[in-house]
Design a protein that fits this description.
The protein is an alpha+beta fold. About 20% of the residues lie in helices and about 25% in strands. It contains two helices and three strands. The protein has helices spanning about 1-10, 65-75, and strands at about 15-20, 30-35, 40-45. It is extended and about 55 Å long. InterPro entries: Transposase_IS66_Orf2. It comes from Escherichia coli M605. This is Transposase.
């Protein structure tokens, strides 16, 4: 995995980088987080369904923190739907 990231990564070793990798079935995702101190690997698997994965030509995607959060929760971040807000109806 480190070799895959090293080939794709053009950042300096001192910068903080995150890489997302999805399993072949689409139900597992790995987040590789690197900074100047070392690497952390986080893995998440969905019990049902698949992660909504962006389609790209070069394999690189820049996600906002909100998009990453929805991706990790298994929410379709491409087409989010607003739910009714709780409150008093008059």
């Amino acid at each position: 995995m480190d070799a895959i990231v090293a080939r794709q990564d053009n950042h300096h070793k001192t910068s903080q980088t995150e890489h997302l990798l999805r399993g072949r079935r689409g139900d597992q995702i790995k987040v590789l987080w690197a900074d100047s101190d070392g690497l952390c690997l986080f893995t998440k698997r969905l019990e049902r369904g698949r992660f909504v994965w962006p389609v790209t030509r070069d394999g690189k995607v820049h996600l906002t923190p909100a998009q990453l959060s929805m991706l990790l929760e298994g929410i379709n971040w491409k087409h989010p739907k607003r739910t009714e807000r709780a409150g008093i109806r008059i």
